[in-house]
Specification:
The protein has about 130 residues and is an all-beta fold. It has strands spanning about 5, 10-15, 20-25, 35-40, 45-50, 60, 70-75, 80-85, 90-100, 115-120, 120-125. The protein contains no helices and eleven strands. The strands form two sheets. Strands 2, 4, 5, 6, 9, 10 and 11 form a seven-stranded mixed sheet that branches. About 35% of the residues are buried. The model has no long low-confidence stretch (mean pLDDT about 95).
Length: about 130
């Protein structure tokens, strides 16, 4: 069993930055593909970014490329999402997710079904 706990959300103004963290339990965190998803009110859950087990490979939703950076620290069992130049349309609950199969097929990384464990989410609100 893996537990994921997100933190770092909050209320910011457009153009500001936030860094989300996701702390994971379990000794095999370093082998997992990790991802961030988000869900805005009234909308479906949306893939944001993914990172492979070593951190050498990353993959992003087009609309966040150049603004968001996913990273991980395997020694701390933590994955991060640095969000810069935030926009009101980034407002959502952000969830981290773990793919314990450690797969890295970019055609499937956006699919929630690829991820076994999910955190409880952290709210990000960007005001205009």
């Amino acid at each position: 069993q893996v537990q994921l706990v997100e933190s770092g959300g909050g209320l910011v103004q457009a153009g500001d930055s936030l860094r989300l963290s996701c702390a994971a339990s379990g000794r095999t965190f370093s082998s997992y593909t990790m991802a961030w998803f988000r869900q805005a009110p009234g909308k479906e859950r949306e893939f944001v970014a993914a990172i492979n087990w070593s951190g050498a490979n990353t993959y992003y939703l087009d609309s966040v490329k150049g603004r968001f950076t996913i990273s991980r620290d395997n020694a701390k069992n933590t994955v991060y999402l640095q969000m810069n130049s935030l926009k009101p349309e980034d407002t959502a609950v952000y969830y981290c997710a773990a793919n314990v199969a450690s797969s890295w097929r970019t055609t499937r990384l956006r699919l929630g079904s690829e991820y076994t464990y999910w955190g409880q989410g952290t709210q990000v609100t960007v005001s205009s």
